[in-house]
Amino acid sequence: MTMNNKETVMKKITHTLAVAGMAVMLSVTSATAQSAAISGEVKKIDESTGKITLKHGPAKSLGMNEPMTMVYRVKDPAMLTQVKVGDIVQFEAEEAASGYTVTKLQKSK
Ligand SMILES: [Cu+2]
Q: Structure pTM?
């Protein structure tokens, strides 16, 4: 009787710890995914079409394993007014149906 109760308590504690561990792992994973900033250089800005050409290094989060220069759409056209050609920037992008889209863009300090 006493043994059984102890076992039940132990199982509950183990289960609680396992769940807590999972929660921590999940939050770490999502934090990593969100902070996948890529370094790049602004090569061209086209405000009329809402596009920016960025030269950047490998971006594993986007499946780009080689450095490259490519055209991105921007999520918000206002992003294009915050940088200029030649600026070194940090950006985040996602693959959308319309093409690769920059979701965050900021000039490197
Ligand atoms: Cu690219």
A: 0.68
